[in-house]
Fold these 3 entries.
Entry 1:
Amino acid sequence: NAGVTQTPKFQVLKTGQSMTLQCAQDMNHNSMYWYRQDPGMGLRLIYYSASEGTTDKGEVPNGYNVSRLNKREFSLRLESAAPSQTSVYFCASSGLAVNTDTQYFGPGTRLTVL
Amino acid sequence: GQQVMQIPQYQHVQEGEDFTTYCNSSTTLSNIQWYKQRPGGHPVFLIQLVKSGEVKKQKRLTFQFGEAKKNSSLHITATQTTDVGTYFCAEDNQAGTALIFGKGTTLSVSS
């Protein structure tokens, strides 16, 4: 039981490049989330998916798109990376959307945009 | 918008001293969760508090939920080097579909 997995672990991009961060969970959870973590800013929600087939914006969605490919997988895409998107990205999942069940986090992707 | 205020932002203690972090919300909460993130790691769930005035203990960690359900605290008794990390509180968003995290309190412990 791997829990929540994320790929890649590290990535360096040049400004304007695009990339997709992958996330998968094997806990049969309904809800999945993408956060970014910057020093002194805590965890900020980018997008979430309360169930397969639905996605919603979080606090900081600009510059990102997401796809809930199936129940297991939730990807985050940067179409044209900017230095302001340098951050650590965490994917998380939870069993239920309502009443926000415990969230389980992946190990993170450390992204640098030059 | 909805905010979760967490203080202090940083705390350094000597091993064996106590530590407390506080979380205050602008709204009345249905519940609050606490997470711990070790340096270089990812957040890990610690506990959820639901009832007004609730107090829960996990070994040296004591969690409290305020009577008005607008604040919460985490107290660590006799800190150890293994307690190092950032502690986050998190509350439901207004729709109840996601969590809003505080900015965290980073604890460092010197032996």
Entry 2:
Amino acid sequence: QKEVEQDPGPLSVPEGAIVSLNCTYSNSAFQYFMWYRQYSRKGPELLMYTYSSGNKEDGRFTAQVDKSSKYISLFIRDSQPSDSATYLCAGGTGFQKLVFGTGTRLLVSP
Amino acid sequence: SAVISQKPSRDICQRGTSLTIQCQVDSQVTMMFWYRQQPGQSLTLIATANQGSEATYESGFVIDKFPISRPNLTFSTLTVSNMSPEDSSIYLCSSQGGRSTDTQYFGPGTRLTVL
């Protein structure tokens, strides 16, 4: 079992839809959870991170962590074609030793 | 956030040769890391580049295959030695600490193809 599992997709949605991207993890010691966005042929770009359980909102993006079920979610409201990318989740006990999921490819059609 | 550049952005190499990838950060950072990203697989940490000392390698990666240098707080190199087609991958460096004290920021990656 991988430490961080993520559905590879692709996930196809129409413009304006609410997108839900999810990961599960197995290491109960993880306290930090990150979401990165990666456009084709580019490096991963940090979207947001959360510490422990709870929600964090930044504009159209909301990250949610449920440590009891070891479930990580990223919600994107009012999705745009420019949101089309691969989204990577990661967990770790700190900021240094991050374990990444394989990424979910999102396609937002106009 | 730190701005990171990598050279080369891509290369096509012959089996048995070596390639050195450079990573430059625009400010002094505490930690630098090297990752490999293969198609359909997650980012895999190769090693932590330590300034002034030997790199710390993850399980499955060895110094003879992936020698790393970090001469100062803004620069690191990764060499992929004696390459085989299995080394074809995207290699990414990241930094953590310094001006941004929290999580890791990544460079654009080096796309390596070994024939």
Entry 3:
Amino acid sequence: KQEVTQIPAALSVPEGENLVLNCSFTDSAIYNLQWFRQDPGKGLTSLLLIQSSQREQTSGRLNASLDKSSGRSTLYIAASQPGDSATYLCAVDSGGGADGLTFGKGTHLIIQP
Amino acid sequence: KAGVTQTPRYLIKTRGQQVTLSCSPISGHRSVSWYQQTPGQGLQFLFEYFSETQRNKGNFPGRFSGRQFSNSRSEMNVSTLELGDSALYLCASSLVAGGWELFFGEGSRLTVL
């Protein structure tokens, strides 16, 4: 059974810093990995999707990498801003969508102005 | 283009009642998935529908059911509500089934008293 772990559970940094969020998964046989952000009381916003054949994806100040063999993904946020404050969730698709996504518990990020 | 729309956004029920939640996917998307989010368990997969057929179901009791209509809109139903059913229920849509990027709605927050 696939398990997804996100470290750290919470992170608070000053505005302007570059930061890395970590995600690990137990079964490397995945179709894709997706990063989401969730604001309090809201739904999930898709940030980046990495297919199993890809090593990384970039969108603006965000860069996500994937190392399937080691079961790890990182989300790099450059030049953090207070608006980046949210919970970041990593999710793995292990069954081509048939079994849904397996989510980590998230990293609660606070960017101090 | 409009995103995923979920109704109602908030509702309060009492134990033993039943509830129906609705989800309208992004136009052109044919796959709809449902997830339950609680503080203790995080996000858990409920079921996925594609072309009016349930592809798979997560580890939830039979009180949780769903369906999809020919226009891809989906409903989920929870019968004989229990206190533990209090959660944020999130709907996600994707273009087709099987490993594609998911787009989530804002969720329906259910409180069971």
